[in-house]
Amino acid sequence: MKVLAIIPSRKGSKRIPKKNIKHFLGKPMIEWPIRALKKLQIISDIYISTDSDEIKKIAMNNGLKNIERPKELATNEALAEDAFAHGYREIKKNSNQEIEFIVLLFCNGACITPGIIDKGIELLRND
């Protein structure tokens, strides 16, 4: 069984335009959770759910798989949970992978570490 990850990342942001690709400590914000996920051997595939060509380019350059995020799931009112559910359905539709867990990380989670993710998976497995 596989452990996958989805990072929902839309281009629109009301308060901070292009927030997900703004540089933070020398890297676009979205690269921080990507880097944390890529350090974990347990994560077999990382997906980006986006409506942005710029975000998609950064994600693809980092080896992520793309899920085209529909317009209705990329509005200010849309919930990340709905984008996650859409991503899950797309993964299941296009693959016959046995999925144990899907890790959901947000692109503005610059402080997330591989250890935190690993501990979360361990807790779910044991409880």
Spell out the blueprint of helices and strands.
Elements: E1 2-9, E2 23-24, E3 27-28, H1 31-38, E4 43-50, H2 53-61, E5 65-68, H3 80-93, E6 99-104, H4 114-126
Question: How would you describe what is shown here?
Answer:
With 127 residues, this protein is α/β, with parallel strands linked by helices. 35% of the residues lie in helices and 24% in strands. It contains 4 helices and 6 strands; from the N terminus they run βββαβαβαβα.
Biggest sheet character: 4 strands, parallel
Please tell me what the overall shape is: globular
How much helix is in the residues? 25-40%
Number of helices: 4
Mean pLDDT, as a whole number?
90
Low-confidence stretches: none
Instruction: Provide the spatial order of strands within the biggest beta sheet.
Output: 5-4-1-6
Beta-sheet strand percentage?
Answer: 15-25%
Given helix and strand content, the structural type is: alpha/beta
Q: Mind telling me the C-alpha Rg?
A: 14 Å
Give the total of beta strands.
6
Work out the oligomeric state of the chains in this entry. Answer: single chain
User: N-to-C SSE series?
Assistant: EEEHEHEHEH
Q: Alpha-carbon distance between the termini?
A: 18 Å
In short:
With 127 residues, this protein is of the alpha/beta class. The protein contains 4 helices and 6 strands; from the N terminus they run βββαβαβαβα.
Keywords:
127 residues; alpha/beta; two-stranded antiparallel ribbon; 4 helices; 6 strands; 35% helix
